């Protein structure tokens, strides 16, 4: 079971850093060359490349080198996997609260409870 | 700006571990005592407490000690913050693809492009 969860480990780990979230945010708006991705970030190109490596390993970003330019783009499936996981937990939690609400409403209608 | 993002760092970091995700999953179904939370996990109670500490620090879980029993419950706001962040990025990405689709359809209709 833990093996199946490894991609989620990597995706959440990748998203746990503000610089990497800025990079994902930028790439959600469209592909970008590494140099463009690095421009708003106050760090060396080598540090940017390390963050990019984490994003690639997690499956959130794909890069491709054409000539001398490496272009990066988002891989939506990884982001969807993380979103789906959180969504499912929220549904569970909301369902439980709905049930609690129904129970309390039923108690309210029950003359024995008054 | 980075300070505002600290909670997201902690939430994604907390979710990057399969044991902690199992704990969040369990608590999405309702509150539980620490001993109950530990039952399906093949680890010492002290290891469970460490994971619980990470979840508490991230804001995903709240615990309360009444007498000798510590009860844990989910704090949905932290989960919603993470969900919202991913959601927004997906919307950006989908909007870009819609625009690309519109552009290609317009090119298709344009007799000059044939």
Using only CA atoms, what is the Rg of chain A? 22 Å
Topology of chain A as a string of helices (H) and strands (E) = HHEHHEEH
Give the helix/strand class of chain A.
alpha+beta
Strand % of chain A is 5-15%
Number of helices of chain A: 5
Compute the separation of the termini of chain A in Å.
49 Å
Short characterization:
The first copy, chain A, has 114 residues and is of the alpha+beta class.
Q: How does the SSE layout of this entry go?
A:
The structure is a homodimer of 114-residue chains.
Chain A lengths: L1 H14 L2 H11 L3 E2 H5 L6 H14 L2 E6 L2 E6 L1 H34 L5
Antiparallel strand pairs in A: 1-3, 2-3
Helix pairs in contact in A: 1-4, 1-5, 2-4
Describe, in plain words, how this protein is organized in 3D.
With 114 residues, chain A is of the alpha+beta class. Chain A has helices at 2-15, 18-28, 34-38, 45-58, 76-109, and strands at 32-33, 61-66, 69-74. Helix content of chain A is 68%, strand content 12%. A 3-stranded antiparallel sheet of chain A has the order 1-3-2. In chain A, strand 2 and strand 3 form a beta hairpin. The radius of gyration of chain A is 22 Å and the shape is rod-shaped. In chain A, 25% of the residues are buried. The model of chain A has no long low-confidence stretch (mean pLDDT 88). Chains A and B meet through helix 1, helix 2 and helix 5 of A and helix 1, helix 2 and helix 5 of B.
């Amino acid at each position: 079971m833990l093996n199946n969860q490894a991609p989620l480990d990597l995706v959440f780990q990748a998203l746990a850093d503000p610089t990497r979230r800025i990079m994902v945010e930028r790439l959600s708006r469209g592909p970008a060359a590494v140099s463009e991705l690095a421009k708003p970030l106050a760090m060396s190109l080598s540090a940017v490349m390390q963050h990019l490596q984490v994003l690639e390993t997690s499956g959130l970003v794909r890069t491709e080198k054409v000539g001398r330019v490496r272009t990066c783009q988002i891989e939506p499936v990884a982001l969807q996997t993380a979103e789906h996981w959180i969504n499912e937990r929220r549904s569970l939690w909301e369902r439980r609260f709905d049930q609690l609400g129904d129970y309390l409403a039923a108690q309210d209608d029950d003359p024995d409870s008054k």
